[in-house]
Write a structure and sequence with these properties.
Pfam family, one: Amidase_3
Shape: globular
Number of helices: 10
Helix content: 25-40%
CATH architecture of the largest domain: 3-Layer(aba) Sandwich
EC number: 3.5.1.28
Number of strands: 21
Low-confidence stretches: 11-26, 92-102, 168-174
InterPro entries: MurNAc-LAA_cat, N-acetylmuramoyl-L-ala_amidase, N-acetylmuramoyl_amidase_3, SH3-like_bac-type
CATH topology of the largest domain: Aminopeptidase
GO biological process, one term: peptidoglycan catabolic process
Number of domains: 3
Protein name: N-acetylmuramoyl-L-alanine amidase cwlB
Radius of gyration: 22 Å
Distance between the termini: 62 Å
């Protein structure tokens, strides 16, 4: 092996190592995280086929000792265990300094399932949830976001349009019911076409264990429709059951509503089992902004790899009106992605992300 060959080999090795490192989610060793799944298996080794030695319930606080690819090392019942890292959420705001304030203003949550975030914006990580009727003391405001003191003395940020303040309640300017109604009207007047990819005789991609893409696209689409309707949108599905609809008919349905938003839902596949992540595709250049709004929410809420917003020369986009997008919501040929995709939690995260992305774009 000559000197040039050795140098080239070393260079490629360095590039490969850097790429592998950059594609992983960053975890701080010895930091605390919360479990974001109803039941998360603890395994004896960092592998999907390793022996299960226990499970953790939703909201369990764990300390990450080390990270190996997509697995987090923890201490479990006096021994070392490994859990899938993509089900962990930062809990730093719960671990921070206790807040002391003298404000007498309180806020009341006006909707169910409201997210508590680590900072004032939807780009910050979700660190918890609260529900209708919960009350907190207001610490400060930043634009439309309010920082509140939690029962344990720590702080979190909450969207101001999802709460009422004590001053508002006193003056009867707005009640929690009225704020909740406003949330439900966020997409009023918008028509959204939800296209569940493939179906019937067309299974779409075939993933690990023989799973069909068409099954997951329909499952996701049905949840998205429910969330969009709750936000006040007029929603039309190109298919609502396991039936074959050709691409011409899908486009015809969409073009019957020229001012609508068309969203085609898919799951990706590749012969390279390491390929993973979520991507949003557009054809018309003017659709890059709405694509980014949805992609940002998908990455923020699901924590899968960000494959970015890209141009896509797909038939359902190329022959459609503006505001037409195609979503690839993870690889069913990648064990990491598929383990998330199969969960009800992930499906709800995707539905919430698409809905919030549209709300952010139109408002």
């Amino acid at each position: 092996m000559n000197k040039i060959t050795i140098n080239t080999t070393l260079f490629l090795a360095v590039i490969l190592i850097c790429f592998s490192y950059s594609s992983q989610k960053t975890f701080a060793n010895q930091a605390s995280y919360k479990v974001g799944a109803s039941s998360l298996n603890v395994r004896i080794k960092p592998a999907i086929d390793a022996e299960v030695i226990g499970s953790l319930s939703n909201g369990t606080l764990v300390k990450v000792l080390d990270v190996e690819y997509d697995w987090a090392k923890i201490e479990y019942n006096g021994q070392t265990g490994w859990i899938a890292s993509h089900f962990l959420f930062q809990s730093s705001s719960f671990e921070g300094t206790t807040i002391q304030d003298s404000s007498s203003t309180s806020v009341t949550v006006a909707a169910d399932g409201v997210r508590l975030r680590s900072g004032p914006g939807t780009g910050f990580s979700i660190i918890g949830y609260t529900t209708y009727g919960d009350k907190f003391k207001l610490i400060e405001s930043n634009g439309e976001w309010q920082r509140v003191r939690l029962d344990n003395g720590k702080s979190a940020w909450i969207a101001g349009w999802l709460v009422t303040t004590s001053a508002q309640a006193t003056s009867q300017e707005s009640t929690p019911q009225q704020v909740a109604a406003k949330i439900n009207e966020a997409l009023t007047g918008q028509t959204i076409i939800i296209d569940a990819g493939h179906g019937g005789q067309d299974p779409g991609a075939i993933g690990i264990g023989g799973v069909f893409e068409k099954e997951y696209t329909l499952r996701t689409a049905q949840l998205v429709v429910e969330k969009l309707k709750n936000a006040g949108a007029h929603v039309i599905m190109t298919r609502s059951s396991d039936e074959y609809i050709n691409v011409n008919k899908r486009v015809d349905i969409s073009r019957s509503y020229p001012s609508s938003v068309f969203i085609s839902i898919h799951y990706n596949a590749h012969e390279n089992a390491t390929a993973k992540g979520i991507g949003t595709y557009y054809y018309h250049h003017s659709d890059k902004e709405i694509s980014s709004a949805i992609q940002n929410q998908l990455i923020s809420q699901t924590l899968l790899q960000d494959d970015g917003v890209q141009f896509g020369d797909f038939y359902v986009l190329r022959n459609n009106h503006q505001h037409s997008l195609l979503l690839e919501l993870g690889f069913i040929t990648n064990q990491h992605d598929l383990s998330a995709i199969k969960t009800q939690n992930y499906q709800h995260q995707v539905a919430n992300a698409i809905t919030e992305g549209l709300i952010n774009y139109f408002n």
